[in-house]
Design brief:
The protein has 355 residues and is mainly alpha-helical. The protein contains 13 helices and no strands. The chain is globular, with a radius of gyration of 25 Å.
Length: 355
């Protein structure tokens, strides 16, 4: 025998369903009267959720490939909401596109290592082919990092001319500055196939002045050093860029965020400072075993670690034909304790500037 109407209305489950239905109906009616749409509501929610929750949570993780895959899978979905929102979700796109660019960066590194292995084994045809793959992948990385930069300019205005107005936007601004440097660097490795304007470099240098160097782990000063070294005439008179990098790495070590060390390792290898590179590799290995790392930025430390590992892997691949051993962040061979050759690595494009 069925329940009567009065009994149904007192049933907790049915009451919950009825209430939810009323809420949904009133919400849809409200949207209709205010000219909003479900797509716009969803877009606004996803944009704020990405910046307020996805980015901070992802920063606490150490799975770099998962983070980059998330960027690849989410970037277009986020940007598509720009078709139904009042403005595209530029702020959320910065992190997503930089993560997506990291996927291409990792792929380009693998191609570089395969080229070095082929060269070591005396296989010139394969080495040439892997170099071509590397250039193509560098171009894809440059395109994605440049897209992140352009979305940042949509948020902050011309970088280098305006600073972020809110302290909570400073991390996104810092990511944008690094995206700009990476875009130019990868485009150089791709023989400028992506067409990234080099004017980004002085813009990033000026933009770095917006950020407190102590608060942001020495990274703003490290960005300036990379521009000083990469752009002829940019180095201020009387400034020692390597001393500035040393100060930056010390700030990062004290804060437990080691991004500046990644910049230092790349600069040392690119600009013919092999002993400094070895020192950076050894010091970074010591930092990784310390308990000082800031867990809120574990992903940034993983990015830094992978960058330093790549510089070390290039040395091992050139000298031995295989990568550095997984438990050895050192400039020595495990079995002999013999220091590896620290001559600067030859480049197939030696006429190309590093930026």
């Amino acid at each position: 025998m069925g329940l009567n109407v009065e009994q149904k209305s007192r049933h907790p489950k049915n009451a919950w369903v009825k209430s939810a239905t009323y809420v949904a109906l009133f919400g849809i009616m409200g949207c209709g009267f205010s000219a909003c749409s479900l797509g716009k509501m969803t877009g606004n929610f996803m944009s704020s959720f990405a910046t307020e929750h996805v980015l901070p949570y992802t920063m606490t993780t150490r799975d770099l490939r998962l983070a980059c895959a998330s960027g690849e899978s989410q970037a277009n979905s986020l940007l598509a909401f720009g078709r139904v929102m009042d403005a595209p979700p530029h702020l959320a796109a910065i992190g997503a596109l930089q993560s997506a660019g990291t996927c291409m960066e990792l792929a380009a590194r693998e191609a570089e290592l395969r080229r070095l292995r082929a060269t070591f084994e005396g296989r010139p045809t394969l080495a040439i082919d892997e170099h071509t793959v590397a250039k193509q992948t560098h171009a894809q990385a440059a395109t994605r990092f440049y897209a992140a930069w352009k979305h940042a300019e949509a948020v902050f205005g011309e970088i280098g001319s305006r600073c972020p107005e809110n302290a909570e936007d400073e991390l996104a601004y810092l990511l944008a500055l690094t995206s700009g440097l990476l875009a130019v660097s990868h485009d150089g490795d791709a023989r400028h196939a992506a067409g990234v304007p080099r004017e980004i470099l002085p813009q990033a240098m000026r933009g770095s002045e917006c950020l407190d160097n102590h608060k942001w782990w020495g990274v703003p000063a490290a960005i300036r050093v990379m521009v000083w070294l990469g752009v002829p005439g940019a180095l201020p008179e009387g400034v020692d860029p390597w001393a500035v990098l040393a100060d930056s790495t010390a700030l990062g070590d004290a804060a437990g965020v080691y991004v500046a060390r990644a910049f230092a390792a790349q600069a040392a290898n690119a600009y013919g400072q092999p002993q400094l590179l070895c020192s950076q590799i050894h010091s970074f290995g010591e930092q990784l075993t310390s308990a000082n790392a800031d867990s809120r930025y574990a992903l940034l430390n993983e990015v830094a670690a992978q960058t330093v590992w790549h510089e070390l892997n290039k040395l091992w691949m050139e000298s031995k034909g295989y990568r550095a051993q997984s438990n050895t962040l050192e400039c020595y061979w495990d079995e002999t304790n013999e220091r590896i050759s620290l001559e600067p690595l030859p480049s197939p494009d030696e006429d190309e500037p590093q930026f």
